[in-house]
Amino acid sequence: MKTIKSALFLFLLFGLITSCSDDDDTPSIEEETEVISRVVLTFTPTQGGDAVTATWFDEDGEGVGDPTIDKIELEEDIEYMLSVILTNTLVDPDENVTAEIAMEDDEHMFFFAFTENLFSTPTGNGNVDNRDDAIIYNDQDENGFPLGLSTTWTAGAHTESTGEFRVVLKHQPNIKSATSTATDGESDIDITFPIDIVEDPNEEEEIINEVILTFTPAEGGDPITARWLDADGEGVNNPTIDAISLLANTEYQMSIALTNTLEEPDEDKTEEIADEDDEHMFFFEFTSDIFTNPSGDGNVDNRDDPVNYDDQDENGNPVGLLTTWTTGSAITSSGNFQIILKHQPGGLKTETSDATTGGTDINVVFALNIQ
Prior knowledge:
By secondary structure, the chain is mostly beta strands.
């Protein structure tokens, strides 16, 4: 009997000691990510003008419904200051998470990723993939490290297609440093906005509704012309377009004449393009190897591909009102010959600017026959 009581006493004593030992241990506390259901980006032009806002809103939090997300539309060549407002709308009243992030700035950092060269500053594609890539932060934490509630962006050239602008907020308690990256800590938000860079609405586009190509044989002979005409402008009726018919194995110099026939009298746009040659450049695409010189398929897809420009602007960059073409052998079926005139104002035209840079004044495809 004494043996049983002694064993019971020892068992209770061991349990008490174990319980006390557990109470003395400091419990581990998991860092919770911020609850953020609405993110508002506000791009404010630094030289004045209307602000641009875009909102991401997850009305039910991490529920069944998908978040709604606005497209960002920035004007080319404009510098903006971006502010980020974060809110938890799932509590009553709404919780201002922005203020919380600002107070805990030594534990948080925004990272950004965007379509390559969407901005003229910062260049590149953002610092999500590489912390050291350029981002212009306007705020720092108490240790002098970037935060990102305020940043500066200068939109690049007008884009023909929609790009992406990704915002990642990392929670980095006790790990934020001069080298911490977008892979460190937990993500409070990770949102990708669609983004367009639009043309200056106050800048008038060229109105061109007639394009005439004239191919003059280098060795003499009758010129060959082909005309594209959109008689009613951007109206209901389709343009009329001639096929180009060239002789095989012949060198031609091609000139381009551009006209706005919707004015009275007709407006000569060729002269205007020549006067503003530092803002304009023609790009060409054609059926592969239909010409022996230049070879290839043109420089729409790659600026460095060969095209024989016979004119240059004041900076020595190509224009394209005059070009030289040497045909190959006769072909049994029609090829294509595409002409794109890009408007690249405000320093956009450079020795590397390409067919995606700037606005498009014309984009015409002719059928091409080699006889």
